Amino acid sequence: MGIKVLKFGGSSVADGIQLRKMKSIIEADVDRRYIVASAPGKRFEIDNKVTDLLYLCKTHMEQNLPYDQVFQVIRDRFNAAAINLEIDADLEIHFEEILTNMKKGCSKDYLASRGEYLSAVLVAAYLKVDFVDAAGMILFDDKGRLLFEETDNAIASKLSGHKMAVIPGFYGTEVDSGEIRTFSRGGSDITGALIAKAMNAQVYENWTDVSGFLMADPRIIKNPKPIDKISYKELRELSYMGASVLHEDAIYPCRLANIPINIKNTNHPDDPGTTITDKEEPDTKIVTGIAGSKDFTVIAIYKNMLSHEKGFVRRILMILEDFDISIEHLPTGIDTVSVVLSNRSIDGRLDEIIDEFRAQLRPDGVEVFEDIALIATVGAGMNRRTGVSAKLFTALAEANVNVRMIDQGSSEMNIIVGVQNTDFNAAIKAIYRAFE
Q1: pTM above 0.70, yes or no
Q2: If pLDDT is split at 50, 70 and 90, which confidence band does 77 have?
Q3: Which of 115-129, 180-194, 265-279, 407-421 has the lowest mean pLDDT?
Q4: Cα gap 112→145, rounded to integer Å
Q5: Angle between the 91-103 and 108-127 helix axes, to the nearest 10 degrees?
Q6: Is 211 within 8 Å of 273 (Cβ atoms)?
Q7: Contact 14, 44 (CB under 8 A)
Q8: What is the maximal distance between C-alpha atoms in the chain?
Q9: How far apart are CA 229 and CA 246, in angstroms?
């Protein structure tokens, strides 16, 4: 039928038991030809992810502390899987190379990437197919930004000579220096999407430990409804707001090439999962999903006759750029502009930011709302139905949740509300009940 690209998450390659499931999935379909491997995740609740252990090694190196025991734990995990599955792979060569580079003071990105590297080496040997390194194929500039076109060409060129291959996710290399660069955590999703795009795949299968997306967080809503189909646009909104099954940046390459993404469960491979396409289905449902995140700060800037003042928003953006802070949302009124920032990006500099606003903008007033949670209610059908907003805000009022901020996207596909962190769970429950 066509090429299928598969990405297996950390839980899917955590140990020998999971690797056997992975092999059965791959061998069940001859079109499954390119496999992206993550670093091994947790095998049980109190276990450690291999990537976390590698970061711990780097911390020990920086503090001039012994790291041999931590690295031995990593070594033992890979060797145990190889012995358990009778895999013919000489992992010692790779372990020694990593240790040599650690002694030379290797970068954090290099060390963090070795979990995926070792995992892909092991999986390739287990499947008896080619191992193809992501180094020299996933390409970054010297600021760590992905070079999309160059990467697309490099993948197509490098993989064209391999009928089937295993590729490590999460990392690539700088074009000029050849240094290892990593994506943010969960970046193996992006690697898989880039390979699917470059190889013109029929579908990109993302295998994890859940059977696709749910309408809401199961830690908050008991047995939320599964989402069988969702559009790229809807998923982008939900992923950005905290729905964490798929890395938000993994959507773009597949959307660009119109490649469906199928979220599947390694432990229940017959479950249909969630299919992500460019097709919106507004006639079948109003709300597709609800997602949110805590810990934001809203800075409301008031100035009389603001609507007549040119360049005001530009100056806000320039001030925040100087602080290396990006805006999450920018709700506006006739005489007000509110900037929504994540607390993590503020990093204790709130007073400094407000001082700059006052000095450069000369506002009539500045008000700060801290400990804000943002909740997005997303659905392609929302802009074609009357009463959606009324239903949402009535539900919040009946749950005694005070709304501190409202923002609706220009696509009219989502409504974002800001509430106090303490009202986060209650608000999601209220919205879910209203639209379930």
Answers
A1: yes
A2: very high
A3: 407-421
A4: 18
A5: 180
A6: yes
A7: no
A8: 74
A9: 14
